Please model this.
Amino acid sequence: MTRKLTIEDLKLVRMVHELNADAESNTLVFTVSKIADSLEDYERNIWAFDGKSLRQVTRGNSDFSPRILSNKGLVFLSRRGLGKDKTGTEVWYLPPDGSEAVKIAYISGGVSDLRVVNNAMYFISNVGPVQEDVKFINEWPPLWFNGRGGFIHTFRSYLFSLDLNGAIRQVTNGDFNVVAYDIEPNGRRAAIAVSTNRFKPYRNEIWVISLEDGERYTVLSNYGVTAIRWSPDGKYLALVGNDLHRGGFATHDHVLLVRPEGGEVIELMRGH
Model:
């Protein structure tokens, strides 16, 4: 027997996303989202699977982006302590002994691309004033379809690190935006893609930064890059991007390899 889809049926839909895996503890964690009964928002909670049983590990209804800290439990993002009108994101820690989750930090600029390397957390966040009702415009800036252009934004996106004690360190600073990053497996260096020209935000540079003293150098220029990953041995950087030879929005992205010291760019998808 068939029937029409109703609003109540939508409440039964579950969306699984933001999977994170840890081979050492043989654990998978992920976010499960559903439409709230009020139909005005989504409820999000963290679930875990250890190879034997599946269980819900948070019930804050606004928890997402879990990341495993090896045998030290996991961290996740949440807005459980924030009202609808308050911006930003909280970082919470869930111990492995099953005790209650505790808040580590509140990040007023929000958190994107949270990662854990050697039990240290890294993320991109916005820095700068947020103008709500009144806008002060000194010049007419470019307008882009990515939600970041125009005169409504007065902030920059930078790379940060965070430890379990709540200590936050701003890794990058300057007249640029961090659009993608990755941390070397040994935790010594970061590779970042930056946009330095707001009139051409699709034109990026790749920098490698020492996380010990902040020294940096340029690996690649005049490429459009949307993702970066270090190889497990730290000898290569894998990029999703292109050389912009047909312009900023008409050139297809490919998978590229380049050594972190610079040099030849190897296109793995040549001819495809």
